[in-house]
Please model this.
Amino acid sequence: EAARPPVPVVDFGNTQEAYRSRRSWELVRSLLVLRLCASSALLAHHEQLLHIARRFLGQRLFEKLMKMTFYGQFVAGEDQESIRPLIRHNRAFGVGSILDYGVEEDLSPQEAERKEMESCTSAVEREGSGTSKREKQYQAHPAFGDRRDGVISARTYFYANEAKCDSHMETFLACIEAAGQASEDGFSAIKLTALGRPQFLLQFSDVLTKWRRFFHQMAAEQGKAGVAAVDTKLEVAALQESVAKMGIASRTEIKNWFTAETLGVSGTVDLLDWSSLIDSRTELSKHLVVPNMQTGQLEPLLSRFTTEEEQQMTRMLQRMDVLAKRATEMGVRLMVDAEQTYFQPAISRLTLAMQRKFNVGKPLIFNTYQCYLK
Model:
């Protein structure tokens, strides 16, 4: 294998080094596209202008113009073959690539809102039967129905059906294979909202938040209130005693919560271990239980789940597993994109589960941290 050239220190004050990998015409194109994108008048009428340009130039010339300007600036290529030269060129200058599928469905805001409201509520909630203990921040609301609103830098997926989720999985598999074939240390990005019904992500986020709140109360009882979450460690024996006194579970059941897998070797439980306790249940709906601080009982988030909802939750996890296994086979690093804050607790927790399973020999599964959040 040919040795890579040394990677220069990135200093954007030194323009000669910072833009060494870019050709002069590419810099001119970047400046032109930047100026055009900064024009509010152009942005306000871009659809009409594109339609006029397509009619005036014809499809062939129009596509050539787009590839010379906007498409060429923001899109690596149309298929696996067309992206390889760019990936190789960037790699020669120490710049890696993250492959992300960029095509988005053309949905109206009304259609996007309808799909989101349907996919984020359970059958029980839609029928108005049974009870729900979901907190307000994890309930679907029309105001946030179109998740594309205000998001200009990433693709947004809306749930249609399970077949569509399978199609998204196949697309991600193709991206993983393209990343593996184009470079030895490729990255491929995925979004979990593309792999299943977002109702599960909302409900799981709600459950995790409630369990963490309970965890912090247990920490306060052990005199560890105010300690940073990542530094909080609970003594197992004391935690078992507190849980038993509250009547949440019998002593026999409590012993089954704390296994070698969740404890490690320290004999303490930290925040991540506590979240992983939920993994010990078999049916996914049984993951969605929360502690009632008044009654001291574990209660289901919803009074009942349909068989189809159970299967939808399982299939989402199965699709994640398929992608992680393929990434492992191809030696491709899989980056799980961050999404809306009301989905993120579940996304981070599921990513952690994949990391525990697949990041054995080397790191392959990566989470995304939203450093702009407080």
Summary: Residues 271-282 have pLDDT under 50 and may be disordered. Residues 2 and 12 are 28 Å apart (CA to CA). Residues 198-221 form the longest helix (24 residues). Strands lie at 98-99, 187-190, 234-235, 268-269, 289-292, 297-300, 333-336, 365-366.
